[in-house]
Every structure is written in structure tokens, then in C-alpha cells.
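Reviewer comment 2.1 asked that we show a complete input and output for one of the modelled complexes. We chose the alpha-L-arabinofuranose case, as it is the one discussed in the main text.
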Amino acid sequence: MSYLFVNANRSAGTINKNIYGQFSEHLGRCIYGGLYVGEDSPIPNKNGLRTDVVDALKAIRVPVLRWPGGCFADTYHWQDGIGPKEQRKTIVNTNWGGVTEDNSFGTHEFMELCGQLGCEAYFSGNVGSGTVQEFSDWVEYCNMGGVSPMADLRRKNGREQPWNVKFWGVGNEAWGCGGSMRPEYYADLCRQYATYLRTYAPDQKMVKIASGANSDDYNWTKTVMERAGGWVDAVSLHYYTLPHDDWQHKGSALDFTRAEYYTTLRKALRMDELVENHSRILRQYQGSRTVGLIVDEWGTWYDVEPGTNPGFLYQQNTMRDALVAAVSLNIFNNHCDTVCMANIAQMVNVLQAMILTEGERMVLTPTYHVFALYKDHQNARQLESYVGAALVGEGEEQVPDLHVSASQGADGAILITAANLDDAAPRTVHVVLEGAKAGAVTARVLSGAANAANDFDHPGRVAPRALAVTPTAEGFDAVLPACAVAAFRVEP
Ligand code: AHR
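Response of the prediction step:
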């Protein structure tokens, strides 16, 4: 029996709903084919956007969506993606497969997607190969309500009202595909770009996001904060979970050993230390204002599925990915005092996707189901939680068997999300609630073999089901199956 304590009297703050954000890049079949098929497609769509995919994403309440990259962002010239489609320039996607894109999905189409999803837009601007003028024109195009060259151009292209886009990324991975810059140089550029990202109405809000570190590059965060921290509202962090550090042989998404399963989870759990350390640097240099941490790329990265384009980063998704999602989201929830947004990479058909598509067919991944189980954490009050975990694993690859986070919604209901990382044995958890009375408890669980996946012929192999709970004087008991993610809803 493992004890799981939730203390309703203690909280680190509100869990920003944007922690449940997503990322959609012009990469492989994420945008084209996955989200956007065009109005003339036989695949059911609304204004070119796949109805099946949009409906599924609406059900998990996506709060914010980052676009157009990724590495693509620093090659993207937004003016090529507006106006009559037949007149748009093409672009060669030099980062991802060298394919030629017709720019039929641009600013208006992306804002249509955000409108259909009911989410906010997060634009990643081109610093690596663009200009300050180009970037500031994009903001004016999106956010200027009055008369101006860019606002007039937007109106000419069919959009009267400004969109009031709030989140603007000043480049992406400036240390790598975004310009191979040194942090000192990027910090200066960041200040320059940020200076010309203006608001166009007194009540307009803008969040300027500096391109942040890769993994544990603390010097990057420190230098950028020291020199440019006063010009931005948040700094990003990218961290991917690879079973093996060799980028040529990262490991298979489906065919992995027990040791690789535990290595993957151990590496995913590193997010805790990274968030802690980068947050400490932000606090050290932020002065009297708060600079938030935005983990705007995270998730698993495996070798592509055999026979698929190596540049398209298409990978399957198993219960192992569900556990990576569960522990990562628990970590973000528990660091809600600094993590103000996170964006899993990526939404459809790329890396740790929510959804895979093949022609007109669509399948929801185990990761999608974790986002569904966790969605009521959005904007809820984080509650302190603690689990008496034991180590489990294979050889040196040891991880805590249980991992948890908890929150209380405005209606008083408590959501506890807990993962059992043990791939072979169930765990009985004795949940103790402090500072709150347990009303009725309902629970759902996602579980299966570590390599269990949904595919187009078996779309329901991994899906949440009801989990039995037994009320106790202090809370309730439940048995978490091996390799499982559970969500308990405790009524007030
Ligand atoms: O998500 C795939 C790529 O990973 C992004 O384009 C880049 O920012 C990161 O290296």
C-alpha cells in the first residue's frame, strides 16, 4: 500500500491553463494533411480544416497553439502566406524534408484554426533570417484596429477586426536552427526586436517570449536574462526525451526493451530539475517584475516509423508516451508558480502527437487521452501533493513508481492525477485528503502494456475506462494497474 497525501490548505498557485498548450509546425504532415486539407478536399472540413481533428482537439480544450515553428519559423516570411492563394509564393521547407509548400496555410488560416479550437495564438517570429521591420509589421497586421498600412492590408485580405494576438516568440532556438547565435549576440537582438513589438490599443496585452535554452544550458538562460530580461515577459525552454542520446539512433517508438522504457521515463523526469534550475535563474535576474518560464517544446523524440520520410518526424505513440505526458504535466502543475505555458511537440502526425492521420482516417493517441484526463487542472488551484514512492526499474534505470499532482477547481472539486510507472505490477494507493472533505469520487484510468498503441485498425486499444475506488475515513483507496495514468475527481 502506498500513501498519497493531498493538502487542500497548501498551494503553489493557479495552474495556468496554457500549460496544456500545443505546438503545430510546418513539418511533415502536421499542418498539411493533419490539420489543413483545403476547402476542396473530399475529407470533411470547415474552411479547409479537418472537422474530425478539430472536434477531437476541442474535446481536450486546447488553450493556446504555437505556430509556425520550430525551426521553420526562422525561414518563414509571413507576407508570403497572405492574400489570394493562387498568388502566394511557394517556400522550400529546408529544415524538414526539403518539400515545397504552397503557403496555402498562412496567418488567416492559422487564426481560423485558433477560432475553431477556441484557443489563443502564439506566433513564433522570424529573427534568424527576417528583419525587425518584417516582424513588427506582422504584429501590426494582426493587432492594429485603426488605419495603417498593415491593418489596411489585413482588411483587403478579408479580416476587418484585429485578432489581438498576445503571445509573440522572438525567434526559435536562436542557438541552433534559429541562427547559430551566441547568447550575448541573441540577447542584444532580442532587445532590438522586442523594442519594436508594439501594442496598438491601451487594453491590448502582449507577452514577449525570448528564445530560450536547450535542456540544461543554464548559461544561455543566465546571459539572456542578465542582458535582455527587462525586455521580455517570458523565456522559453526546449527539452525532448530521447531513449538514446545518439540522434542517428534515438530508439524506436514501438519496439523497445524494458530498460529503454525506464530510461525514457528517467529522462522525462529530468524535466523537474530543468524547470527548477531555469526558474531559479529567472527569479535571480527578473528584478521587480515576473519573467515566466515557457516550455514551448517538450515530448518524446524517437526514430521515425520505418518507411516514412526521415524529415517528417512521424512516430507512433504508446503507453510509454502516456506516462511521459503524465509526469511532465504533473511537473508543470507543481511548478505553476513559474511555468506559465508549455507546448507539447506536436499536435498532429509529428513527434509526440495527440492525433495521427492517414488520408481520411484519424486515431487518438494515448497522449491525447492523458490530456483529456488532465484537462480540469486548467486554471485550477494547485494543491500540494505527496506520494510515498518506491524506486522501480531495470538495472541502473530506476524511477519512482508513483507520480502525482492535484488541484482544486472553482467548483470545489479536487482533481488528482497519478501515474504508476511500474510496467509490471499494480499499486494500491491510500489517498489521504487534508483540509477538504471527500464527497463522491469518480475515477478514470488509462493503462496497458508499455508498448500498447492505437492504430488505424485498432483505434480503441488504449482508451480510458472507469476505475473503482473505495471510500475511507481519510479519503479513498484505489488500485492503479501497472503502467497506468489515473484521474480522480473528488466532489466537494
Ligand atoms: O519540434 C521539432 C523541432 O525541434 C523544432 O522545429 C525545433 O525547434 C526543435 O529542434
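The mean pLDDT is 97. We note this here for comparison with the apo prediction described in Section 3.2.
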